[in-house]
Amino acid sequence: MLAILFDTTKCQGCERCVDACVQASGKDEAAAAADRATTLDGLSANRLVTLRRVAPGRFARWSCMHCVEPSCVSACLVGGLSKTRQGPVVYDADKCIGCRYCMLACPFHVPRYEWARTAPFMRKCSMCFDRVSKGGQPACVEACPNKVMTFGERADLLARAHELVERQPNRYLPRVWGETEFGGTSVLYVSDADLSPAGWPAKQAASIPSVTDPLIKKTPFIGLGVGMSCWALSAVIRRRDLLGAKGASREGPPSQSHSTKEDNRD
Amino acid sequence: MIDHNRSWRDLLWILVMLGAMAAIFRLWFGLGATTNLTDSVPWGLWKILNMVAGVALATGGFTVGFLVYVLRLERFRPLVKPAILIAFLGYGSSVFALTLDIGLPHRIWHLLVMWNHHSFLFEVGWCVMLYFTVTIMELSPILLERLRLRRAAGILHGIAFGVVVVGISLSSLHHSSLGSLFLVTPQRLHPLWFTPLLPVHFILSAMGGGMMVVVLAKILYARAYDPPSVFGDARAAEAPLGPDFPMAQRLAVIASGVLATYLMVKLTDLVARGNWRALVAGTWESWFFVLEQVLLAGLPLTLIAWRRTRRSPVGIGVAAACAVLGLLWNRMDVGIFGYFRTAKVAYFPSGIEWALSLGVLAAAVLVFIYAVENLPIFDTTWRARQEARQRFPSTFDPATMVWRASLARGIDRVTFIAVFTGALGWLVLYPPYRAPKRGSVAVAPPVALDVERSRLRLGEDGKASAVVFPHRDHQQRLGKEKSCGNCHHLSMPQDHSTPCVRCHQAMEASTDIFNHDVHLASLARRVPGHAVFAANWVCSQCHPNSEAKSALGAKPCMGCHQQDMKPTRGLHAGADWRRAIGYRAAMHGTCIPCHEREKERVKKPTLAMCGTCHQNLRYRERTQLASAP
Known about the structure:
heterodimer, A: alpha+beta, Alpha-Beta Plaits, 2 domains, 3-stranded mixed β-sheet, two-stranded antiparallel ribbon, 9 helices, 9 strands, 40% helix, B: mainly alpha, Formate dehydrogenase/DMSO reductase fold, two-stranded antiparallel sheet, 3% strand
């Protein structure tokens, strides 16, 4: 599974990765530049990657994290999002109906919508899937002048990140972001500043599909159970009414006793 | 009685007309132009009020069906038809609103053929579709009988129990799944509302609130068409209340029992998870939560527990109305308000969103009114009423030569309303009249890093002191792409290497580069509520409230702009940044220290002389040693 390792101590915040992304994804550069100024966090349908300030002078690339167990993939009701075998989470615009549930479901708040269009689609980073599947590198990784990002197999990068963190304890905080959060992501971070202000959860945060999947697997049985118990309950009550009517017919007028008793109660 | 209702109906028609215009605008101009939805708040009024809350209001269809068909409480049988009609209209209206809410309405059929059975939304979608079919099947005997198709109606009557049970199963699934929809946002939804028990909360509140909707409908129907049936005959001393009142009252009691359970589950969960602290935190969320719980459970329970209000139709009606409002408020809290804090922006629906939302609800109410007037929904007195209704046909009176358009007929009134509402709606709702959502900050195009011109002319103001600066040469020598930071100490937002002259505008004097107006406008846009009464918040972002509003006490630029101005050289942070020093001082300060250092290293003493750069100066001046500027 492919992944990106990002070293915030090397990033000087020039955002050449963003320019490369805008060019590689064929977006309008002027619109992307305008979105930098007018959006809250720099992400938009024209600007699929941005740098988010985590501490003075420290920046973290912010874009789709390509989660190992992606929430958006489980949320999309038409299956328009999928986790590929190679690692990137990709979007099939031909399936999308525009319900925007992925935007609500993403724990990193990444998917963006083309609000300016009459027939809009969701947009997010695809880790340059077309380039990557041909053996290339994502545009942002290539463009970085400081070689902040490393692209490769997730397992290798994890090992490398741990090695970095252990060898240089003065330089890095003892944590590899993206290793376990929400079930792990395919964009990993080593940093000397805490990434929580940018929106990272605690280490133990469970992946969202691991919460919702067991629940949704139960639903057919819940539905069936409710139906069966309704049927059984009504059979019991019908039987009781029948017996009650038989008993009542010996004493007095049938079928009235039940309701009059209830009427008098209030 | 008819006249009394007519003004209400006119109001509903006005809403429907506005809603129709809103729907046309939405289809023509698209979601972004017509709604206030943003990337931060992707789900708005149509999803939450019309789908999530609309479906919750329609729960009466399955709860009353459960009471009558499964528990065999025959006393509620007269309420089955209205309850199912409400369910049909609730689901129909929410499906309609949802179709307009999704970005690509023409692809709504994708739900049928493209399955993702990991998605709660998929489950909700299918259950809503199937249950909508169930309500149609449950409702069609009434229509079929009206059309005198007794045989078809008989078949449907035969399978009624099975259909009801299927409906109950489907309802129990999707009413809880509507709550599960929000389980995917554990770190974004406010802790007052987020809990793993959301599905349980949703189905309990929907069941209680849905029964209250049926109670409310029954009481309002009686108020409008048949007061003695519920409100009784004031002259009869023996029975002050109508014969149907116990039915409504008993249903309200059952509903309040469900709501009491809901309240207990909710509060227990809040305490057990330790989120009660958010309740006493005194934020607006805690007030919203209190309001919602008081409306949904507190007030109805009190009104029903108190003997005097329990025995009055008005008391029961008010209790039911409170519960319905509380249910709506609760869904808005979970779906919209609960996200504001983490989204860092507030969302208020646009006029078009309100118009479509209320228009769809108004259309549902109109259909309901039409159905109860013309079909045996509540009782069979409709036929008598219909005959008793007076008719005022529009006629041409030949004697007076006057066209007597009395506006008594529905079609006349609706045409009249449509013409005026159309004009009004255009004025109020036409999307291009709205202010553009995007800010209009002028943004300079990014300067390409590898400048095409290898030589820049510095200070080219026609004077002899102009300098030809080999930009590419310096770039190559000082470390290529990483060299920018050696000279360019600071870039404007969006830029990699802002030209020096952008800020150092005058040759000698310093320039004020801080644009106060742009900062005011740009900060005001971030205030929740879009710059209404923004001043207090905006000013205090830079000027501490305790100090005079002057440049001296204000926050330094880098307090906010660390990220987008990218200082690449250690400038002293401070208020000075609001003024850029003169161009000559800036250039000398940048070039000379570096040249001074370099001349030692490369053993070339002329490197720091004026003439090295100012090559068109006279020889004597060129050979003079450079002095500090």
